[in-house]
Design brief:
The chain contains 3 helices and 13 strands. The protein is an alpha+beta fold. A 4-stranded mixed β-sheet has the order 3-2-5-6, with helices on both faces. The protein has a 4-stranded antiparallel β-sheet with strand order 10-9-12-13, covered by helices on one side. About 45% of the residues are buried.
């Protein structure tokens, strides 16, 4: 497990500017999925971390569960060790540090798994992850999401209230379903790494009041899977998540 002290300069994680929205009060044409909402798993990982490949492999197995949305956020703070992770982004490191601040933690590390925004476990500890997943299933509710692709690279997003009215931010995440890369330097030099659900873009697209239906049409890459989540600020608890392949 690799740890690093965070930067204590406030970071604006997500930018609302530059996103064209058409907001409407009322349901969208797509219907939200019925049944329990999927649980969001965020793995903070790096190709430059020798402890991360087992967690990457575990994420691939967890992603096969239809009740789970598992995504990988590659951090950039290990790039100095000799290998620059091509999937790493400062926004991913900033998000992990924001989680740490919100939880009162003084350090961040890889691999780390965050479950529905509230449970924090080592990314390769399958027993701890399974236990946290069971607890997360008992604490669901708060919103429902409907997604539908539109022409011109647009995505229709609709958020409907659940059993608790909680204000939250709506995020659109673009995900590369699979990738394979051979690392030639650093701690994993000579290893070929397989990745699943690598985050390539992350945008906050709106604020939801927790009461009224919210609908907007936003840009979305046609060559990526799309994950949408509704999350309390902090970042805090994930109220709902949905995926469109």
């Amino acid at each position: 497990m690799r740890r690093v002290l965070p930067a204590w300069i406030p970071v604006l994680l997500l930018l609302l500017s530059g996103v064209a929205l058409t907001v409407a009060q009322g349901p969208a044409r797509a219907e939200p999925a019925t049944g329990p909402a999927p649980i969001l798993l965020e793995l903070f990982t790096s190709q430059g971390c020798s402890s991360c490949p087992p967690a990457d492999a575990l994420l691939r197995r967890l992603a096969a569960d239809p009740d789970v949305i598992a995504i990988a956020l590659h951090v950039d703070y290990w790039d100095y060790l000799g290998w620059r992770d091509p999937f790493a982004a400062p926004r991913n490191s900033a998000r992990q540090r924001a989680y740490a601040r919100h939880a009162g933690e003084k350090m961040v590390y890889t691999p780390q798994l965050v479950i529905n925004g509230t449970a924090f476990v080592p990314g390769a500890d399958e027993a701890a992850i399974r236990h946290a997943l069971a607890a997360a299933r008992d604490a669901q509710g708060g919103a429902r999401i409907a997604l539908a692709r539109q022409t011109g690279g647009q995505l229709q997003v609709t958020v409907l209230p659940g059993d608790r009215a909680i204000p939250a931010t709506i995020h659109v995440v673009e995900v590369l379903p699979a990738a394979r890369m051979t690392v030639t330097r650093g701690e994993n030099a000579g290893r070929t790494l397989d990745h699943r659900n690598v985050v390539t873009d992350w945008r906050a697209v709106g604020i939801w009041d927790g009461h009224d239906p919210w609908s907007a049409r936003v840009p979305a890459a046609v060559d990526r899977d799309i994950v949408v989540l509704v999350q309390e600020d902090g970042p805090g608890r994930v109220l709902a998540a949905a995926r469109l392949r």
